Amino acid sequence: MSVAREAICRAQAIQVHAIARLCKVRGHTRWVTDEVALGLGMTRQAAAGLVGAAEVLTTRLPRLLAAMEHGEIDLHTAGKVCDVTAALSDEHAREVDERIAGRLAGKDSAKVRRIARDAVCAVDPDGYTERAKRRRKDRRVELVHAEEGMASLWAYLPAEIASAIYARVDGIARKLKTKDEDRTLDQLRADVLADLALGKHEGLPGVLAQVYVHVPIDAALGITNTGCELAGHGPIPGKVARQIMHDPNSVWRKVTCDPASGAVLDVGRTRYRPPAALGEFVRVRDRECRAPGCRRPAQRSDVDHHRDYRRGKNGHTSKSNLNCLCRRCHRLKDVEGWDFHLNEATGELTVTTPTGRQHTTRPETIFKPNVESPDKSTKDNSPDIQEPPF
């Protein structure tokens, strides 16, 4: 499979160069899209996207195109970076291209998009904040009718609000998923959302939205506006993070971080009854399901004993033997042919598939630590909470 994928990536890179060459020969007229559409047997809309990507890759993102030529990423994945950098100047786009070069091989498209988005925030923090502010004005709800008596209700919302709504709906659905319940979790979530919106359901006691917002101390104090992240989403403007922190009725929980090391310093507990300290630490540390390619937030995942004492594997309850796995990946761990290995010294989780291919992840720091001028006194006085290796 990997050999075939590399061949596809290289072939798509050849196609990109060919389309870019055609655009240059035709003087970059709008009719190039029609020519590409007819030549490749695709719609004009699809051809327009292909032409746009070809011009961006050959002019603004040459290192990304080189990764395609080396068989590391395909055109679909490269398109994610094109989308994320679309609002940048040519200079900033090339800077992002340099920052992410060499970091994309083996990553899925969602991970690549996240890497690119982090780079965009780093090279153009003010622009990112201003664009985020404008985007919030575009919030809306749309109804899209489908076939066989179905329809989609689609909402475009600020990320922290959408995340909190989903967390509440998911929490109620999981409470209702008993052994006597025939509905799937997807069906339950849909029914819960409908009942809440129609006023038929008022929620369940003890089920509240719980979404983590990671905030560096300097951003919390208003010194900077960078480094803030919404768990499961990515960067958010510092102003939004501070509004969440200072709202006494907030349903979001702040995680304060050391800007020098990226380590967790404190987890806000002003609204919820805190869970077991160790379980909470593991969820905050891991942020998401640790299985490669999975993006389910850690607070909606299981805290798993990697070596299970009950199965005679001498497992112990400590942060070095615990990691977060969503329910599906937790079950996958026990499927014959799959192997999950947690390196307790480094925190790396290596998953081996039935074909013998290995994929490794490790808990990432909330944001890039300030390695240029670390404050050793701050590090020495910080709480006994470690970042990997543990």
Describe this structure in words.
The two termini are 35 Å apart. The protein has helices at 2-25, 32-40, 44-59, 62-69, 75-84, 90-100, 109-123, 125-136, 159-176, 185-197, 217-220, 238-246, 277-286, 327-332, 376-381, and strands spanning 140-145, 151-156, 211-216, 229-230, 234-235, 252-257, 264-267, 302-305, 322-325, 339-342, 349-352, 358-361. Mean pLDDT is 80; it is low at 269-275 and 370-390. It has a five-stranded mixed β-sheet. A three-stranded antiparallel β-sheet has the order 10-11-12, with no helix packed on it. Strands 1-2 form a two-stranded antiparallel ribbon. The chain is an alpha+beta fold and 390 residues long. Helices cover 44% and strands 13% of the residues. The protein is globular and about 65 Å long. Helix 2 (32-40) packs across helix 3, helix 6 crosses helix 7 and helix 7 packs across helix 8 (125-136).
Could you write a compact summary of the structure shown?
The protein has 390 residues and is an alpha+beta fold. 44% of the residues lie in helices and 13% in strands. It has a five-stranded mixed β-sheet. A three-stranded antiparallel β-sheet has the order 10-11-12, with no helix packed on it.
Low-confidence stretches: 269-275, 370-390
* Overall residue-averaged pLDDT value: 80
What's the count of strands? 12
* Rg, Å, rounded: 23 Å
Task: Give the overall silhouette.
Answer: globular
What is the straight-line distance between the termini? 35 Å
Beta percentage is: 5-15%
Number of helices: 15
